[in-house]
Amino acid sequence: MKKKKIFKITGISIVSLxxxxxxxxxxxxxxxxxxxxxxxxxxxxxxxxxxxxTSLLNDMKLCGEKKILGKHHGxxxxxxxKNKGYFRKNILSKYNSKKFSDSGYLNFRFLINCxxxxxxxxxxxxxxxxxxxxxNDEMVNELLELTSNxxxxxxxxxxxEKKYNYHMYILYRIENGKIVEILP
Length: 184
Description:
The protein is 32% helix and 22% strand. By secondary structure, it is α+β, with helices and mostly antiparallel strands. The chain folds into 2 domains: 1-37; 68-183. Strands 1, 2, 3, 4, 5 and 6 form a 6-stranded mixed sheet that branches. A hairpin with a 2-residue loop joins strand 5 and strand 6.
Protein backbone atom coordinates (compact mmCIF):
# COMPACT_ATOMS: atom_id res chain seq x y z
CA MET A 1 0.00 0.00 0.00
CA LYS A 2 2.80 2.43 0.90
CA LYS A 3 4.72 1.59 -2.29
CA LYS A 4 1.63 2.29 -4.35
CA LYS A 5 1.11 5.64 -2.65
CA ILE A 6 4.78 6.62 -3.07
CA PHE A 7 4.69 5.57 -6.72
CA LYS A 8 1.53 7.62 -7.30
CA ILE A 9 2.96 10.75 -5.60
CA THR A 10 6.24 10.37 -7.51
CA GLY A 11 4.37 9.99 -10.80
CA ILE A 12 2.21 13.06 -10.17
CA SER A 13 5.30 15.06 -9.15
CA ILE A 14 7.22 14.06 -12.29
CA VAL A 15 4.27 14.84 -14.59
CA SER A 16 3.73 18.21 -12.84
CA LEU A 17 7.43 19.05 -13.14
CA UNK A 18 7.44 18.13 -16.84
CA UNK A 19 4.37 20.31 -17.43
CA UNK A 20 6.01 23.25 -15.65
CA UNK A 21 9.20 22.82 -17.69
CA UNK A 22 7.16 22.64 -20.91
CA UNK A 23 5.20 25.76 -19.93
CA UNK A 24 8.38 27.68 -19.06
CA UNK A 25 10.05 26.68 -22.34
CA UNK A 26 6.92 27.68 -24.28
CA UNK A 27 6.86 31.11 -22.66
CA UNK A 28 10.58 31.63 -23.32
CA UNK A 29 10.17 30.55 -26.94
CA UNK A 30 7.18 32.86 -27.44
CA UNK A 31 8.96 35.88 -25.96
CA UNK A 32 12.21 35.29 -27.88
CA UNK A 33 10.88 34.15 -31.26
CA UNK A 34 7.39 35.61 -31.09
CA UNK A 35 4.09 34.62 -32.52
CA UNK A 36 5.08 35.76 -36.01
CA UNK A 37 8.49 35.59 -37.57
CA UNK A 38 10.23 38.83 -38.56
CA UNK A 39 10.92 39.46 -42.22
CA UNK A 40 14.08 41.54 -41.90
CA UNK A 41 14.56 41.65 -45.67
CA UNK A 42 11.16 43.25 -46.19
CA UNK A 43 11.24 45.35 -42.98
CA UNK A 44 14.86 46.03 -42.01
CA UNK A 45 14.01 48.92 -39.66
CA UNK A 46 11.61 49.39 -36.75
CA UNK A 47 8.09 50.75 -37.24
CA UNK A 48 8.18 54.52 -37.45
CA UNK A 49 11.82 54.67 -38.58
CA UNK A 50 12.73 58.06 -40.02
CA UNK A 51 15.49 57.91 -42.60
CA UNK A 52 17.89 60.84 -42.38
CA UNK A 53 18.53 60.73 -46.14
CA THR A 54 14.89 61.09 -47.22
CA SER A 55 13.55 63.35 -44.46
CA LEU A 56 13.10 67.12 -44.50
CA LEU A 57 15.33 69.44 -42.45
CA ASN A 58 17.86 66.63 -42.22
CA ASP A 59 20.86 68.81 -41.38
CA MET A 60 20.27 68.24 -37.64
CA LYS A 61 22.70 65.80 -36.01
CA LEU A 62 21.79 63.29 -33.33
CA CYS A 63 23.76 63.43 -30.11
CA GLY A 64 25.78 60.89 -28.17
CA GLU A 65 25.12 57.25 -28.94
CA LYS A 66 22.39 58.33 -31.38
CA LYS A 67 19.87 56.40 -29.29
CA ILE A 68 16.30 57.62 -29.87
CA LEU A 69 13.60 57.43 -27.19
CA GLY A 70 9.81 57.36 -27.67
CA LYS A 71 9.92 55.49 -30.98
CA HIS A 72 6.24 54.61 -31.31
CA HIS A 73 4.39 57.42 -29.59
CA GLY A 74 6.79 60.30 -29.04
CA UNK A 75 7.27 61.90 -25.65
CA UNK A 76 4.69 64.71 -25.50
CA UNK A 77 4.78 64.87 -21.70
CA UNK A 78 8.42 66.01 -21.83
CA UNK A 79 8.75 67.46 -25.33
CA UNK A 80 6.91 70.77 -25.24
CA UNK A 81 8.75 73.84 -23.99
CA LYS A 82 6.70 74.88 -20.95
CA ASN A 83 3.59 72.89 -21.98
CA LYS A 84 1.27 72.04 -24.86
CA GLY A 85 -0.94 75.07 -24.21
CA TYR A 86 2.06 77.34 -24.70
CA PHE A 87 2.94 75.49 -27.92
CA ARG A 88 -0.63 75.83 -29.21
CA LYS A 89 -0.81 79.54 -28.38
CA ASN A 90 2.58 80.11 -30.04
CA ILE A 91 1.58 78.29 -33.26
CA LEU A 92 -1.86 79.92 -33.52
CA SER A 93 -0.47 83.42 -32.96
CA LYS A 94 2.05 83.05 -35.79
CA TYR A 95 0.06 80.97 -38.29
CA ASN A 96 -1.70 83.02 -40.99
CA SER A 97 -4.91 81.05 -41.64
CA LYS A 98 -6.44 83.76 -43.85
CA LYS A 99 -4.21 82.76 -46.76
CA PHE A 100 -5.51 79.18 -46.92
CA SER A 101 -8.77 77.32 -47.52
CA ASP A 102 -7.65 73.66 -47.32
CA SER A 103 -9.19 71.12 -44.97
CA GLY A 104 -7.55 67.96 -43.70
CA TYR A 105 -4.94 66.55 -41.38
CA LEU A 106 -1.28 67.44 -41.51
CA ASN A 107 0.95 65.03 -39.60
CA PHE A 108 4.60 65.76 -38.82
CA ARG A 109 6.76 62.94 -37.43
CA PHE A 110 10.23 64.08 -36.49
CA LEU A 111 13.18 63.82 -34.15
CA ILE A 112 14.40 66.26 -31.53
CA ASN A 113 18.05 66.01 -30.59
CA CYS A 114 19.64 66.47 -27.17
CA UNK A 115 19.99 70.22 -27.83
CA UNK A 116 16.23 70.66 -28.38
CA UNK A 117 16.58 71.10 -32.15
CA UNK A 118 13.90 69.51 -34.35
CA UNK A 119 14.69 67.84 -37.66
CA UNK A 120 14.33 64.75 -39.85
CA UNK A 121 10.66 65.51 -40.62
CA UNK A 122 8.31 63.08 -42.37
CA UNK A 123 5.04 64.64 -43.51
CA UNK A 124 1.70 62.92 -44.14
CA UNK A 125 -1.14 64.94 -45.69
CA UNK A 126 -4.70 63.60 -45.46
CA UNK A 127 -8.22 64.82 -46.14
CA UNK A 128 -10.84 64.76 -43.39
CA UNK A 129 -11.71 61.17 -44.38
CA UNK A 130 -8.09 60.19 -43.57
CA UNK A 131 -7.20 59.51 -47.21
CA UNK A 132 -3.81 60.74 -48.42
CA UNK A 133 -4.16 63.92 -50.42
CA UNK A 134 -2.31 67.09 -51.35
CA UNK A 135 -2.58 70.17 -49.19
CA ASN A 136 -1.45 73.67 -50.09
CA ASP A 137 2.37 73.62 -50.20
CA GLU A 138 2.65 77.14 -48.78
CA MET A 139 0.49 76.15 -45.78
CA VAL A 140 2.50 72.96 -45.22
CA ASN A 141 5.78 74.89 -45.39
CA GLU A 142 4.53 77.55 -42.98
CA LEU A 143 3.45 74.93 -40.44
CA LEU A 144 6.71 73.02 -40.95
CA GLU A 145 8.68 76.18 -40.20
CA LEU A 146 6.60 76.96 -37.10
CA THR A 147 6.69 73.37 -35.81
CA SER A 148 10.43 72.96 -36.33
CA ASN A 149 11.29 76.12 -34.39
CA UNK A 150 13.53 75.09 -31.49
CA UNK A 151 11.74 77.52 -29.14
CA UNK A 152 8.92 74.93 -29.00
CA UNK A 153 10.98 71.96 -27.77
CA UNK A 154 12.78 70.86 -24.63
CA UNK A 155 16.10 69.18 -24.26
CA UNK A 156 15.27 65.77 -22.81
CA UNK A 157 17.18 64.60 -19.76
CA UNK A 158 16.24 62.52 -16.76
CA UNK A 159 17.66 62.18 -13.24
CA UNK A 160 21.02 60.99 -14.57
CA GLU A 161 21.29 64.36 -16.38
CA LYS A 162 22.24 62.58 -19.59
CA LYS A 163 20.54 64.24 -22.57
CA TYR A 164 18.63 62.19 -25.14
CA ASN A 165 17.35 62.34 -28.71
CA TYR A 166 13.65 61.53 -29.05
CA HIS A 167 10.75 61.04 -31.47
CA MET A 168 7.83 63.42 -31.57
CA TYR A 169 4.76 63.91 -33.72
CA ILE A 170 2.33 66.76 -34.21
CA LEU A 171 -1.00 66.35 -35.99
CA TYR A 172 -2.89 69.44 -37.09
CA ARG A 173 -6.58 69.21 -37.92
CA ILE A 174 -7.30 72.00 -40.37
CA GLU A 175 -10.74 73.15 -41.54
CA ASN A 176 -11.00 75.85 -44.21
CA GLY A 177 -7.42 76.87 -43.51
CA LYS A 178 -7.91 77.24 -39.74
CA ILE A 179 -6.23 74.97 -37.20
CA VAL A 180 -9.04 73.52 -35.09
CA GLU A 181 -7.07 70.89 -33.20
CA ILE A 182 -3.45 70.03 -32.43
CA LEU A 183 -2.60 66.51 -31.29
CA PRO A 184 -1.13 64.96 -29.19
